[in-house]
Amino acid sequence: MTHRLHRGAAATGALALGSAVLALLPAQAGAATELLANGGFESGTLSPWSCTGTAALTASGPHSGAAALSATPGAGDLAPCTQGVDVRPNTGYTLSAWVKGSYVTLAATGTGVSTSTWANAAGWTQLTRTFTTGPDTTRVTVALSGWYGSPYQADDVSLTALGAVPTPSPSSSAPPSPSPSPSTSTPGQGDATLTPSAPASSAAANTVRVSTAKELQAALSAAVPGRTIQLADGTYSGNFKITTAGTAAARITLTGSPNAVLTTSTGGGYGLSLAGAPYWTVQGITVTNAQKGIMVDSSDYVVLDGVTVHHTTMEGVHFRNSSSHGVLRNSTVHDTGTAHDGKGEGVYVGTANTLTDKSDYVQIVGNTIGPNIGAENIDLKEGTTGGLVSGNRFDGNGLTNINYDDSWVDVKGNGYVIENNTGVRTMNDGYQTHTQQPGWGCGTVFRGNRSDLTGANGANAAKYAIDVTNYSAACPVTVTADNTVTGGTALVNPGIPVG
Description:
Blueprint (H helix, E strand, L loop, with lengths): L6 H18 L25 E2 L2 E5 L9 E5 L8 E6 L4 E20 L2 E20 L6 E7 L6 E13 L35 H6 L1 E4 L2 H9 L6 E4 L2 E4 L2 E3 L9 E4 L4 E4 L6 E6 L4 E4 L2 E5 L1 E6 L5 E3 L2 E5 L4 E4 L6 E3 L2 E5 L10 E3 L13 E3 L2 E2 L8 E3 L7 E3 L2 E3 L13 E3 L5 E3 L2 E3 L6 E3 L10 E4 L2 E3 L11 E5 L8 E3 L4 E3 L3 E3 L7
Parallel strand pairs: 9-10, 10-13, 11-14, 12-15, 13-16, 14-17, 15-18, 16-19, 17-20, 18-21, 19-22, 20-23, 21-24, 22-25, 23-26, 24-27, 25-28, 26-29, 27-30, 28-31, 29-32, 30-33, 31-34, 32-35, 33-36, 34-37, 35-38, 36-39
Antiparallel strand pairs: 1-4, 2-3, 3-8, 4-7, 5-6, 5-7, 5-8
Protein name: Parallel beta helix pectate lyase-like protein
InterPro entries: CenC_carb-bd (IPR003305), Galactose-bd-like_sf (IPR008979), PbH1 (IPR006626), Pectin_lyas_fold (IPR012334), Pectin_lyase_fold/virulence (IPR011050)
GO molecular function: hydrolase activity, acting on glycosyl bonds; lyase activity
């Protein structure tokens, strides 16, 4: 016999069953917990933010609420405001902020973490980054900063956890997924990406922690594919050299915070040298007080991520001796060429006066280069091909013109893409191409670059954002209409098409 259940009883039973099921399910996540304090700047003070330079609360047009951060960088600073936050290892996080102003940057740094994004916007614009902490990350520093002499505002800054990164079961026999080679995609405005990390369990099992210069050199000498060398904060004195090769499937990583500082005792030699050492990632550390900062020789697929290089007698970072597919990203280079002899490029690719150095497909992405660079911010030599210079911020304060250094970027190689960069303070031009060897200095694409030539004080009567010194059917150049210039004579020199 079929019994028809009364509708009210059925409803009661369903509710009871639903309650029972819900009782067995894990609690659903509510709103994500905010980790930053005073991210909306509504407390009446800036605390616990720590700001350098001119910074204050403003009630003038906040994004939300009653107040926002207002900061004004000076001629030699970015007016950063920072806040330290405790985080969990192996956990994903979302960082966001609403900003407006010239070249406002939002960043997070810490042990094994270096990520940033920026915008140049007259109105409120949201910046967002996601990142994953490493196995030893317990604290990150969130930073807001602007651009020299340009006021900025920020509001509704937020840091929330996405959740823990799954850890493979100890019984699993599957090998760790290989880290991919550096991306060849073009990032959007202000984007900065990180090389994915290996799973937490394998990374922890193959991590060497060092805290002295002697331990560091020993770890570099004993490095094997797949290993991570973790630097504690502190000063490491010496000329450090890496000669062991990683592999595409098992990169070797040297990582630390900006407070892990490699320096030399005499100011001579290389701060960090990679020679015959492909597939390394160097992340987060600082290199200073050397003749040359980071030298990459005969080493393909090297990634320099979130490093700081400053106070070198000559160049800051150099990809040389056919070091192809290298990447410099999310990094800061300043105060190079302190000898003031025109030989202190911020970033140097290739070798002058030779075509045998095939340091091809090097990507220079999302960096701040300058001020006080003693030669070009970037010099791309003849013999090199197919590189990318994208999303960087250049400051030409420090150019000398002693060794023909009078622009932010000098392109002597072939097939480069120069895009979405911004530059201030130069002597003559923003970007130049030159033919140092027949058939070279050709095929460059310039797009989306913003050049401010205000105050350019070089000897040339005419000053251009893009100065192409050799243009013909055999040596083409592409300059798109979305390049812009403020000050100077014109966007391009006469005879160069724009479109």
